[in-house]
Amino acid sequence: MSVDVGSLAVTGLRISGETELVHGVDLALAPGEALGIVGESGSGKTLTLRAVMGLLPRGLRVSGGTVEAGGRVAMIFQDPLSYLDPMTRVGTLLGEICRAHHGGSVAAARARARELFVDVRLPDPDTLLRRYPHQLSGGQRQRVLLAIALAAQPDILLCDEPTTALDVTVQAEVLALLAELRARRGLSLLFVSHDLAVVASLCDRVVVFRDGLAVETGRTADIVNRPTQAYTKALVDAVLPLPALAEVGGE
Amino acid sequence: MSSGLELVDVAVAYGSTRVIDGVSLQVPPGRIVGLVGESGSGKTTLARAIVGSVPLAAGSIRLDGVELRSGHRSREERRAIQLVQQDPFASLNPALTIGFVLDELLRVHGLGGDRAGRRTRSAELLGLVGLEAEVLDRYPRQFSGGQRQRIAIARALAVEPAVLVADEPTSSLDVSVQKTVLELLCELAARMNLATLFISHDLSVIHAVCDHVAVLQGGRLVEVAPSGRFFTHPEHPYSRALLEAVPRIVKESK
To answer: Which residues of B touch A200 (CB under 8 A)?
Structure first.
């Protein structure tokens, strides 16, 4: 059975190494939807995402269940520096990736790379295309990784804690960019984070992971306001509150 | 009358570049002052200057009114200011038991008396951070991240410091564990009258524990304010930009 373009169906996914780590997880992502996965370290959220991408670490395998993706899938990661070649200018790397996906001339690939840099709102693309990864800031590197992901013209984007290593102001910019790309390109997002507030700011629905199981799934507002599972409630309660900011010029 | 930790016009330079400049800040005993800033703002460099591991280019650091040496500090000076770092695993020797680490520390500083006395004191210190005495014979790898951070805190407190500098102490912990470590730091500051400088990039964590907030940008303090005012009425545009960028959970009002 085929699935709609931009949708993703994970059914009864099991991941095992020496022992079973993910014990039968179901996920359903609708076209254009943003679905969040939250959980603490070791809950299996990253493994699930990697299984969808076919990028499980050595020694681990999918031991049960199915993954059906409608269309192309791309992924971005927490630490972009480890996915970029330190010896290659980011523009050269992105150009090669564009040619690998779509063929064409080197010049056409360069032009395409430049377009992608504009798409991910990298300032002054002509200069930044010539930079090496170490010459870029953390936020710029994450945008380059996003440009690489977009080069595949994906229908579904998997995001593994893409803003966790970023400063809070840069995080806000990257989250805004992801929301914009979703609206502009109809991209479906599967977004993993340990931070419920980050997930809530981007996603329509949230899945709560614990010890390799999806313990609760629901609309973001329901998960935050009316959690049914004790674990979800504990996770919501652990988010430290901040008082509302007064308007500028208020007393 | 003790006045706690005082920074007066502190500057730190790497080569000819001043990475910290003109920083003046007070951390009174029993209080927790939060230092917030983005990466590269100089938070950790300032922490290092306070514990004496990088020299000052200008200004002074005082403890209860007495100026601390900027370069090589005496044992007493080093003892008075203790640092708790982000990654407790990296700061604990994997080959030594917790009991051995605490015992050695107490012995070197002439605290806790004889071997049996030091063992009793070590158990007390673990009790202070909510751990049982039986963990004394275990190795760092046998603990969770939260437990390791508790051990790092117990070790810092072993030498009875007046000042605790906590540099992102909960940033590598899960949220549920983070909450218990923050509660512990609050309780210890009050109970032991510790002047605590709490460094974090996370404003919601700062809000949970701090009496005052200092905002560092590019090596300079742009705002120092009581928590009660800072989080609703920040004065500096950069403070406001930071607060506006924090993702928040919008709960429906009941």
So the answer is: 247, 249-250
